[in-house]
Write a structure and sequence with these properties.
Number of helices: 21
Radius of gyration: 28 Å
């Protein structure tokens, strides 16, 4: 599509675009008004059934786990037991109300966006897809939402509670509070909530016109000049849709700021208890408003910093003025700076493609693709058997597949990254995640940060190929809970310090994957992975060998002694292969 040049060409492009846009908009609104009640009904009734059905179990089990846990002290446990009824009683109300709003919003906007997606350059028969796209897929997506919510309430919740009831190591002290600090904490909270809610609301309302006007200005420039993300033909309708929906985005941003202000105000009590100072808690109440304004200014590309006072509310912390000075020097030393880089337009073909290019989604896809490839390989080697796959499909609690298999896939990526001396993580032969291309997302940084540290540790250990082969078996078959678990294993290195370091890396990976397994989408996607491995076992004949060996072992159990556990391949085959196996590239994909 040629970009119009000159004022008259741009004006004609804009006027000719309007009828086309309004027709798509009316069709999208009609589809949204029809699909929204159906999608909202599916989500509301499905989630409500799960919430109400599991609420008695959640109520009783939460109280039991809090009463039994050794991770918190006596006073904090008593305070938790006293305050638990309020959130437990509010949970069904807020969850059902949130399901209603989310279901109606998803059911309305998904068909609306799909209508504009249907006019893409790669879409054939655009007229047909304008009417069809976004209807059935939205209803299927609503069922997926209910399934993921069910997984969270039925599996993730109980997993968190089981972790709460785990035994505490002898050298770990339980988290507790001091009764002498409670009056100061309550006073700071009582002052912090109303003050921060009022001030942050004022700042959000004051900045909202800037957000509205600057957003409209940028979108209109991109629409008329056909620049930025709306350079390509298919994205032009999205420009008009974004202009219309931009006030809604501003309103949602203000509401989110008001809701978050309550939690920011509550945190003043935590500061008082942590720093053992009421004065620092009061300083936090003032300082958090300045921090919020600075965050908004950075988001809207306004002036740097904040005009509001920011007293220091933490001991042994860099003063705010010095911290801002360091950040300014860092930005000046980085060439053009991240500010200008944020203003550079990024081209995108369709909204759906933009979502697929979001790096956490790609890493999520690569992880499961790696688990599928490694699962097939481990199935042939006998480290994963048909019983594990069946247990994962029927019960959904097979630790070897849901935790150890992803841990080995990530460890394989770390080994490949350490071998190639990469600055980031090599997730495929052509793609490397570095600080320059992964998203500035806090959740993703919390996940990727420990992996980079472990990669440097592995690089320092200089693991050879023979050790890599043995690490595979140790991850999949060993407990890795204490150093004695490796005593009976013929690991190539006899250095106790080296073995302890490797074992610590494996334990940390298992902990990271355990946290990832509680994400609702993880269980749904891993069920599909287990089914794919089952089909692989059927097609490769491993399942047939398992059935034959199981029946043979049952008939000859009295004469031949215990069987090999039905691994589909004899356990000696792994040791035979490990003598000459050479690990591949270790890529996630």
């Amino acid at each position: 599509m040629e970009v119009p040049l000159g004022f008259l060409a741009k004006l004609w492009s804009f006027l000719s675009f309007l009828p086309f846009f309004f027709l798509l908009l009316m069709l999208g609104l009609l589809k949204g008004s029809v699909v929204a009640p159906l999608a909202g009904g599916i989500i509301v009734f499905g989630n409500s059934a799960v919430i109400i059905g599991l609420w008695p179990a959640h109520f009783l089990w939460t109280y039991y786990c809090v009463a039994e846990t050794k991770r918190v002290g006596l006073f904090l446990k008593i305070l938790g037991l006293i305050s638990l009824p309020l959130p437990l009683l509010l949970w069904p109300i807020l969850a059902i109300f949130g399901s209603l709003l989310g279901g109606l919003g998803y059911g309305f906007f998904a068909p609306l966006v799909a209508t504009f997606e249907a006019v893409g350059e790669t879409t054939t028969d655009k007229f047909f897809h304008c009417f069809i796209d976004g209807c059935w897929s939205t209803l299927k997506g609503s069922c997926t939402v209910v399934r993921d919510f069910t997984d969270f309430c039925f599996h993730s919740y109980f997993s968190y509670m089981d972790e709460l009831r785990e035994k505490v190591p002898p050298n770990e002290k339980p988290v507790d509070i001091k009764l002498s600090k409670l009056p100061s904490c309550f006073l700071a909270t009582l002052l912090g909530v109303p003050v921060d809610v009022v001030l942050i609301t004022i700042v959000a309302l004051w900045k909202s016109p800037y957000m509205l006007l600057k957003g409209w200005k940028r979108l209109l420039e991109d629409l008329i000049g056909r620049e930025g993300p709306f350079l390509e033909t298919v994205c032009v309708p999205f420009a008009g849709l974004a202009i219309i929906l931009w006030p809604l985005a501003v309103v949602m941003a203000v509401i989110s700021a008001i809701i978050s202000s309550f939690f920011l105000g509550f945190y003043a009590g935590v500061i008082v208890h942590k720093e053992d100072s009421l004065w620092l808690g009061l300083a936090y109440i003032v300082s958090v408003v300045s921090l919020f304004e600075e965050y908004v200014n950075d988001l809207l590309y306004l002036r740097e910093g904040s005009c509001l006072p920011r007293p220091n509310y933490q001991r042994n912390r860099t003063p705010p003025d010095d911290d801002r000075h360091d950040r300014k020097n860092e930005m000046e030393g980085s060439g053009s700076g991240s500010y200008n880089s944020k203003l550079l337009p990024q081209q995108s073909k369709t909204l759906k493609c933009t979502i697929q290019q979001y790096k956490p989604v790609q890493v999520w896809d690569w992880l499961f693709k790696s688990c599928e490839d490694n699962g097939r390989m481990l199935l042939w080697e006998g480290l994963v058997d048909v019983k594990d796959i069946g247990e994962s499909i029927l019960k959904g609690n097979c630790k070897k597949l849901s935790v150890k298999l992803p841990a080995w896939s990530i460890l394989q990526c770390l080994l490949a990254s350490a071998k190639s001396n990469a600055s980031g993580l090599v997730i495929s032969d052509e793609i490397e995640l570095t600080e320059n291309n992964w998203p500035r997302d806090k959740v993703f940084e919390w996940f990727i940060g420990p992996l980079l540290i472990m990669k440097e540790q592995i690089k320092g250990l200089q693991i050879d190929e023979n050790e890599e082969v043995w690490l595979k078996k140790l991850v999949m078959d060993s407990n890795n809970e204490k150093p004695e678990d490796w005593d009976d294993i013929r690991f190539p290195s006899q250095d106790n310090v080296r073995r302890a370091q490797l074992q610590a890396i494996i334990r940390r990976l298992l902990g990271i994957v355990t946290s990832l397994s509680r994400i609702p989408t993880f269980r749904r996607r891993f069920t599909g992975l287990a089914k794919a491995l089952y089909m692989e076992a059927v097609q490769s004949g491993v399942l047939e060998d398992h059935v034959v060996k199981s029946s043979t072992s049952e008939r000859g159990q009295g004469n031949e002694g215990p069987s090999d556990g039905g691994n589909g391949k004899n356990s000696r085959s792994w040791e035979e292969n490990s003598e000459h196996e050479v690990n591949g590239s270790g890529n996630i994909v």
